[in-house]
Amino acid sequence: MGETKSIYLDHCATTPIRDEVLESMMPFLRDRFGNPSSSHAEGMRAREAVEKARQQVAALIGGLPAEIYFTSGGTEANNFAIQGLVQAGREQGDHIITSSIEHPSVLKTCEHVASQGCRVTYLPVNGYGLVELDEIEKAVTKETILITVMHANNEVGAIEPVQSIRKVVGSEKVLIHTDAVQTVGKIPVDVKELDVDLLSLSAHKFYGPKGVGALYIREGTPLVPLLYGGGQERGLRSGTENVAAIVGLGAACELALREMDDEKKRLTRLRDKLQDLILEKVPSAVINGHPQQRLPHVLNVSVPDLSGTDLVEEMDKQVVFISSGSACKSHRAETSHVLSALGVAPELAKSAVRFSLGRNLSEEDMDTAADAFARAIDRLKTLFELEQSLGFRRCF
Ligand SMILES: Cc1ncc(COP(=O)(O)O)c(C=O)c1O
Fold first, then answer.
1. How far apart are CA 269 and CA 348, in angstroms?
2. pLDDT on residue 356
């Protein structure tokens, strides 16, 4: 008997590395092992590869190669942008603005700079998870040095109006950063259209390797490094470059640029099909987030009276991999800060699960996933009823 084919629907968490990407990296893990800082031929070959990747990243996001700084991923890029700017801007002001639905790599960094005396304003979002521009306008003060609002949210997929922030703020003095980890490689991202000074991206979210990313820093933006040492990345990010991973990031960018338009349309079609099937099979299901202004591959669903972590487990048993909107700690699920900010009632927020689609999925996979979901709900409801009849109390 053949093994049941698994269906991976967790592409917001990470994506499988593409064959072309892996192939581009292999020489740099074996024979081409040179250090890009060495002046001999082996070093020069590594340097050329790093600079080619810098061009590929710049081409995908509409920046200049000289504005791309390689990092160990999205978390480091976000830390670098926020901590680096707060330190560089001490003379100008001590206030930053962010949204209440950012990834922990932004929120925890904001908490850190707050512990060092920086004031942080957390913008609310509306019921769709969108930041409203008048809230930004209200929050800006003479002391504001940075606004950091994510390009798209990793739980509900809401695409934020980043391109309008500068117009609202007016002042060139306030710098704008966006965490574009969930959008780069998935939807068009252009640093000039977005009018941002800093932008974070991460390779493993779009079929590149884990542990590599980049920070776009608009020319002339003052930033203090996080890491000191050999002065790599023009003195802003010391440490010998992870050449193979950087080459993989570059290759993933080139592929994304070539295929994005078609893939975006295909994923929207598949996601909408999955959504329709789920609503048909599970009429009580509630979709979280905006129906249109959301990433093409993301679907966040709540099912009243169930637990998201139980649903993920039941789907796992059917080899369909999704994620829950809440982190389960010692059998007690914590409500997602994102869904809370959207105003989703705690019972619904605890039942939320996220389906995030990717390039290896077919129409047929959507049928299988929707059937598995309906089955998972039936099983949990039966179990729930049985537990109740036996007098058990379930804690979500
Ligand atoms: C919106 C967002 N920002 C930042 C990160 C962190 O990126 P990395 O895993 O490359 O550190 C993630 C990863 O889940 C993310 O979804």
1. 26
2. 98
**Spatial separation of the C-alpha atoms in residues 150 and 200, rounded to whole Å:** 9
Calpha distance 245→251 (Å, rounded): 10
Q: Name the nearest CA neighbour of 17 among 161, 193, 205, 261.
A: 205
- The predicted pLDDT at position 329 comes to 38
Which residue CA neighbors atom 14 of ligand 1 most closely? 13
**What local confidence, expressed as pLDDT, does residue 333 receive?**
59
Active site residue 253: no
Per-residue pLDDT at 395 exceeds 80: no
The CATH number of the structural domain formed by 7-13+260-389 is 3.90.1150.10
Q: Ligand 1 centre from 106 Cα, in Å? A: 9
Query: Where do the structural domains in the chain lie, given as residue ranges?
Result: 7-13+260-389, 19-256
Please state the atom number of ligand 1 nearest to the C-alpha of residue 202.
10
Give the pLDDT score at 328. 42
Prediction pTM value:
0.96
The two tokens of residue 382 are 């039966």
Answer whether 157 contacts ligand 1 (Cβ < 6 A).
no
**154 alpha carbon – ligand 1 mean position (Å):** 8
Region 213-226: mean pLDDT is 97
CATH of domain 19-256: 3.40.640.10
